[in-house]
Amino acid sequence: MLEKPFYTRSRNIVKISTALLFFTLLLSITTPGDGEINDNTSAKDITFHEEIIRTMAGTGNSPEDVLRWQKEHPNSSLRFLSEMLSEEQEAVALLVKYIKTTNPELSSKTIWREACAFVHYAKKYGVPGDLLVAVANTESHFDPKAMSKKGAVGVMQVVWNTHAGLLSANGITSKNLLHDPELGIAAGALLLSRYIRAYGSEHKALDRYYGTTSSRYRNLVNKNLRALKNSL
Description:
Layout: E1 13-14, E2 48-49, H1 50-58, H2 63-72, H3 86-102, H4 108-125, H5 129-140, E3 152-153, E4 158-159, H6 160-169, H7 181-199, H8 202-210, H9 215-231
Antiparallel strand pairs: 1-2, 3-4
Helix pairs in contact: 1-3, 3-4, 4-7, 5-9, 7-8
């Protein structure tokens, strides 16, 4: 599985004006209350890659929508979008299209938040981005409201009772927060990164993530991994 960004071709960046915020790598998961968007910021102050602009048009959205979502969710990874590297912005645009095609029931805001979160947290935790997306598709079909009979919650179907200590230590302090599309992805990325480091292989990491050795689960993840790569 690839550890490079989903999409690596370079293109020119469309300059709308100056950047909204400086892009930085966080050292821990942020939760509501850790940052705010300046109320005076306007869409004219945002810089986006041309592929982001085209994809926004394709989903019926605009930079004004992204700015509004940022203000509604001050700690969303959307606040980093305008300052992401060119290939990272392209990856976000591609994931928006892929998630929308895979689960058209999701709102545009949820789709854009998830796409940014996949790119942001894959980089933050050193998890192959395509693996993270494939696991999310396998687990929940990208649905943040998903719940299983065994107590698995959110996009990445993380079990709170099993991981409460680790998640709380990293800013996810309640089970309900796992229904947040971005924090659910953050939780899954954190767990996958730990398992990959602990077991030394993605194959074994998937078994640990699932909770037992399962060729069926690995096959489903690999199927979704191929579907993702074929869509790029």
